[in-house]
Every structure is written in structure tokens, then in C-alpha cells.
Amino acid sequence: MSAAEWSAVVAVQLCLVLLVVLVVVLVRLERAAAELRSTTRSLAAEAGAAMEELRQAVRDADFELDRIDALVRGAERVTDRVDAAAGLADRVITSPVVKVMAVGTGTKRAVQRLAGGDQQPRRKRAASGAASVAERQAASVAERQAASVAERQAASVAERHRDR
């Protein structure tokens, strides 16, 4: 055989070896692709289940948020009612209490004057009259201050209600 024939035989054998290597690589690639497809399918199935669990968790959280929102709204309504009741109690009680105190003081003075009669010396009566005027003025100032406090409290309650 000639050199050309030998080189042809070597080239054919080399091609056969390369063909066998290529077939082995292709078989391994096919196995890897099949395994990849299998893994992808199992991942998709697990991801689907995880997504369904996630959706259920979101639904549950949404339900709980709705419940909490309802509780908060109820607490706000109760707070508003308590504020309104407190304001009403302040308006209803403060003014009558001041008036009752004034009537009590006046009644006490009248009883003291009636019990003591008109036997006081003129100077003492004048001093007593001046003291009585001062006491009335002090009572009047106290009554105005109490009314002012009650008005400010009512304005505060009204302002809180407007803010809400």
C-alpha cells in the first residue's frame, strides 16, 4: 500500500474515533437534557403548590386585616362616644355645680344674718357689707372662670370631633 492509501486509512479511522466520541457526547447530552426536563417538571409542580399556599396565605392575611380594621373602626366609634359623653358631662355638671355652690353660699349668709339679727354696730355692718360685696365679686369671678373653663372644654371636644 502506498502512502496515500495509508493516510486515507488513518484518516478514516480517525474519523471513526471522532464519530464514536461525538455519539458518546450526544448520548450524554440527551441524558442531561432528559434529567433537566424532569427536574423542570418537578420544580414547576412544587412551584405551583407553593404559589397556591402563598395565595391562601395572602387571602388569610387579607381576612385578618379586614377583621382588625373592623375592630379599629369599632374602637374609634367607642372613643368618639366616650369623648362626646365626657364633653356633655362637663357641660351638664360644671355649670349647675357652680350655681349650687353660689346658692349654698347665699343661703349660708342669709341664715347667718337672720340668726345674728340686726344687732351689729354700724361699723361692723359697713365692714360686713363691704366684705359681702367683695365676696359676691369673688363668687362672680369664680363663676365666670368656671364658665370659661367649661366653654374651652366644649370647644376642645367639638374640635376633636371635627378633626375626625
Question: Can you offer a commentary on this structure?
Answer:
- The chain has 164 residues and is an all-alpha fold.
- It is built from 2 helices and no strands.
- Helix 1 packs antiparallel against helix 2 (122-163).
- The longest helix has 114 residues, at 3-116.
- The relative contact order is 0.06.
Reconstruct the topology from this structure.
Layout: H1 3-116, H2 122-163
Helix pairs in contact: 1-2
* Main sheet attributes: strand count, strand direction, barrel closure: none
Q: Output the helix-strand order.
A: HH
What's the tally of helices?
2
The overall number of domains is 1
Note the beta-strand portion: under 5%
Q: Can you describe this structure in just a few lines?
A:
By secondary structure, the chain is mostly helical.
Name a few traits of the molecule:
164 residues, 95% helix
